[in-house]
# Entry
Amino acid sequence: MATGGVVSDLDKGDVLGPVEYTLSPFVVREYSHAVEMHHPCFQGREGDLVMPPTLIHLDKLRLYKDACPGGTGPSARIHFEYDVEVFEPVRVGDRLSVRGDITDRYQKNGRDYVVLQMELTNVATGRLVVRYVDRVILAYRSAEKAA
Amino acid sequence: MNAEKLEPGSEFSLAPRPMTRERMRWYVDAQPTIAADDGRIHTQEPTIHDDDEYARKQGLPGIIADGMISTNWILGLLIDVYGPAVAGRCKLRTKYVAPIYEDQIVITRARVTGVEPSGDGKACRLDVWCEDDAGTKLTTGEATVFV
# Structure
């Protein structure tokens, strides 16, 4: 188990969170603005706003902050695959709980890869609303070149 | 729903966009801004997405775009075509097959590959991708939307 250290030490079997938060209109609008999704469901009136499914990716940072207080580690990560399934809308004001499981860590061509599966649950209903699998390379430079 | 949008083989795209330094920085600074969720703008330490020197230290030739920008552009295209319900129920998987560098032209595309009954409606399967102005794939993936 590597939780409590830095992100680059995370290993298969590690559990991150759960972390609870309430989805705010500021977060939905700010994120959507940054990626130029100017649709009313993301940047309109507060009562109309829903969470962009891509926003789950930033919940990873909530989990890292909680589980890896030492920060990133020696190298920048490269995110290379995003894989989401959304089961029902997540609305502004919803109380949410996110949990992460490191389901794999492996080496390929001298690089370390980590797979994180995250589940987002609506606290009031207890229902799973989003499942997300995030795949990263822990360092762009291969271990051989970095040595 | 326009029936044409449901036909296998139907293809949609966004207007070409250059991946500018500003677009990369918008995403970088959105992350701490969203983490703080206090209505103010926050900025980040140097990253591979906004600082050339830091990117070169990590083995890159210069800054590269965060892959989630292209994923969000794909999501935006799906919402343009199929409406806001996509944000409340969908599957989307993207893989970053080539780095996107500063000033590279990015064209976001989707093509319907299948339509099948699902509950009271239909499930549309699509290939989704971003390519440069020479047709080289930068991001690839697939999506399912429910209409």
